[in-house]
Design brief:
Number of helices: 2
Distance between the termini: 33 Å
Largest sheet: 8 strands, antiparallel
Strand content: 35-45%
Number of domains: 1
Radius of gyration: 20 Å
Shape: globular
């Protein structure tokens, strides 16, 4: 099926309108608009709790302000699939707006009967889920974490797109001045057909947040150096071109229809790049990787799909971004279908023409499908 990305919500009664070049208002508004865009392309809200009301019959959050009660949550299910995300919000300190969220994902979906007005449901199959944001805590006693690095609304732009097969992306970035990355991002990406194992029944990867483990990411760094260069061999130059932020990517390894939890792997995976780097030597004969220049035919900035691999290395090296599997399952996952790696990084918000005019937009080191004729707020 050909992927057709949409940048317009038609979710009548909730949010209708463009989902690009929006002024970022607050985190609740961003998630509210994402919910409407997902419903537009075929996702469905299968359960939700408002803090006082629990429903599996309808989407009870009709405005972004309706999220403001404590521990509000909703479960949204992908089209023609059991894949389901659960978004839960905290109102810590009694604030009407907050940047504290818990996000989880299950390839096999959730048992909605286990939810309440304040408690998110459990997965249909025990352990068949990944906590994408706020790994500590439980459904009965959830913890929350920050989704965006900088929640100040002034001068920030919200953009999101979703396609007809279930992929979506959302970013927030600051306009004007130096635009080197984003202040927050959420990505659910399908893998390229033929690039993953035939027995992989969950060929998707997910990226979330402005946090790396317990370290807060500063503004304009999300999606910058989130793809790890395997060509790097010199430690002094290595730190300048990559770090461990790719640990914000999540996926499953060897998940089958009859094996969950301990029989599979759910968690971090490394997004890596081979094709855009080559190894060379400097004046002092130390080796390092260098980025390939623009191509020699039309001098365009080439884009490449992103490979996802879980390393078998037992130890972990956070400085270098190597995610060690140890005794967990490891190996090849597949190539990204829609998002691309930018060999020559451009400013966030810049557009690139690949097949049609302005059909990709730059966000940090990654490029996302774009609407072509849409203006880009900067």
């Amino acid at each position: 099926m050909t992927n057709i990305f949409t940048f317009l919500s038609t979710d009548t009664g909730y949010y209708t309108g463009e989902t690009y070049n929006l002024q970022f208002a607050n985190p609740e508004d961003a998630i509210f608009k994402l919910k409407s865009l997902l419903k537009t392309v075929g996702w469905s809200v299968v359960a939700n709790g408002s803090g006082s009301t629990y429903s599996t019959a309808s989407d009870i959050f009709t405005t972004s302000a309706s999220f403001f009660a404590n521990s509000t949550w909703f479960a949204v299910k992908a089209p023609s699939s059991d894949r389901t995300f659960v978004f839960q919000r905290s109102s810590a300190g009694g604030s009407t707006t907050t940047n504290l969220w818990r996000i989880k994902y299950s390839p096999g979906g959730y048992n909605t009967s286990t939810g309440t007005a304040t408690r998110a449901p459990s997965p249909t199959n025990s352990n068949d889920e990944m906590i994408i944001l706020a790994q500590a805590g439980t459904d009965a006693s959830p913890t929350f974490d920050t989704l965006f690095a900088n929640v100040a609304s002034t001068g920030q732009f919200l953009n999101m797109g979703a396609d007809n097969s279930g992929s979506f992306w959302l970013t927030v970035f600051a306009g004007a001045g130096l635009r080197t990355g984003c202040n927050g991002a959420l990505i659910h990406e399908q893998l390229l057909s033929g690039s993953y194992h035939a027995n992989d029944i969950d060929p998707w990867v997910t990226y979330a947040g402005a946090k790396l483990q317990t370290a807060t990411i500063t503004a304009n760094t999300v999606l910058t150096y989130d793809v790890y260069s395997t060509g790097e061999t010199d430690s002094s130059s290595h730190a300048a071109t990559s770090d461990s932020r790719n640990s914000k990517w999540f996926t499953t390894i060897r998940r089958t229809s009859s094996k969950y939890g301990a029989e599979s792997f759910y968690g971090n995976i490394a997004a890596q790049v081979y094709s855009s780097y080559y190894v060379t030597t400097n004046l002092y004969r130390s080796t390092y990787s260098a980025v390939l220049p623009n191509n020699p035919y039309d001098y365009y900035n080439d884009l490449s799909p992103v490979p996802f691999i879980r390393s078998p290395v037992t130890a972990t090296y956070p400085i270098y971004g190597i995610l060690g599997a140890g005794t967990d399952l490891y190996g090849w996952k597949g190539f990204s279908k829609n998002i691309r790696y930018i060999a020559q990084p451009l400013a966030t918000g810049d557009v690139i023409t690949v097949n049609t005019t302005a059909d990709y937009i730059c966000m940090g080191q990654l490029a996302f499908p774009w609407g072509g004729t849409l203006n880009v707020a900067k």
